[in-house]
Specification:
- With 304 residues, the protein is an all-beta fold.
- It has two domains: 103 residues, no CATH class; 159 residues, no CATH class.
- Helix content is 0%, strand content 41%.
- The strands form two sheets. It has a 13-stranded parallel β-sheet with strand order 1-2-4-6-8-10-12-14-16-18-20-22-24, with no helix packed on it.
- The radius of gyration is 21 Å and the shape is elongated.
């Protein structure tokens, strides 16, 4: 019997037909057995995915790596591959030569578990450019524990993208690698509760405003939600705030905040403006209770 591995590789391809992509079949792993708790699972440089044995919600891995060179599908279109909360997930890693295409579906759910567990962290290094599933991104995430952190560096990612999905997370961080405005494209569904959103670039479209604070440093932020949001800070880039309930504090420190793209009634309790910031709004549709210029600023009511 081989010793229990700290790192175990998923190979797939064992047997025939569905068995080749079944997580329950030990011969799909390099040690001839499934991984156990606290092991590191790695998949790279093969075409076999995980389409069967999807409910592994009792398995608490230390790390899960699905590299950009592993092009097989993970999960079904409507059924995610499930792991227990407490894992560190790395998706789309690639440090060698060439540009692997990536998997056109990674549908992953981290399930809240009983007992003490470390906080989960999901790092998306990259994704495929296209998806196997119409109108859905290639990487789809659902997380069930409020101390989870999701970091997106590049790629197309959805968080609780489907109508029936829900997620809780501590922080969503969107950064960039080579193209600050376009590397990341993230969609957040309307049944997501987040504590903090920190956005350094890319595109974020959120249908959830259930977030304690949201900060945009670059790229484009699009908000389409009925939720109330306590704090939004815009340092640069563009924030299209098309629909929301009430924003308690909106800080325009730079960039463009556009409230003119829809005629939906919206309320901002406190608006603070700094030099270099531009806010476009129509007072017929947007109520701002208090406007506090911090220094020189630009504000326009002629955008509609």
């Amino acid at each position: 019997m081989p010793p229990e591995a700290r790192e175990i590789r998923y190979l797939g391809g064992s047997g025939s037909n569905y068995a080749q992509e079944d997580f329950e079949i030990g011969s799909n792993f390099d040690f001839g057995r499934k991984p156990i708790d606290d092991e590191i699972l790695l998949a790279e440089a093969h075409v076999f995915g995980i389409l069967y044995g999807l409910d592994q919600s009792a398995l608490r891995l230390k790390e899960f790596h699905w590299k950009q060179s592993a092009t097989g599908l993970v999960g079904l279109a409507d059924t995610p591959f499930k792991l227990a909360h407490g894992v560190k997930v790395f998706l789309g890693e690639h440090y060698g030569i060439g540009s692997p295409a990536g998997s056109t579906r990674i549908n992953l759910q981290l399930v809240a578990s009983t007992g003490d567990a470390p906080a989960s962290e999901i790092i998306v290094h990259n994704s495929a450019s296209s998806s196997s599933d119409n109108n859905l991104p290639p990487v789809r995430l659902v997380v069930d524990d409020a101390d989870t952190i999701i970091r997106v560096r590049r790629g197309r990612v959805g968080i609780a993208s489907r109508a029936a999905e829900e997620s809780l997370l501590d922080k969503l961080e969107i950064s960039w690698v080579t193209g600050r405005a376009s590397d990341a494209d993230v969609h957040v569904g309307d049944n997501v509760i987040m504590d903090t959103v920190e956005k350094q670039g890319g595109m974020l479209k959120t249908e959830s405003g259930a977030v304690t604070s949201m900060t945009n440093h670059a790229g484009t932020l699009m908000m389409d939600t009925a939720d109330n949001t306590p704090l939004i800070i815009v340092w640069a880039g563009t924030a299209n705030l098309d629909r929301f309930g009430t924003i308690t504090d909106l800080e325009a420190r730079g960039g463009l905040i556009d409230l003119t793209r829809t005629t939906i009634a919206r309320t901002i309790t406190n608006l603070k403006l700094w030099p270099g910031a531009t806010v476009l709004y129509d007072p017929g549709y947007v109520t701002i209770d208090s406007i506090a210029p911090q220094e020189a600023m630009k504000i326009s009511t002629s955008g509609v």
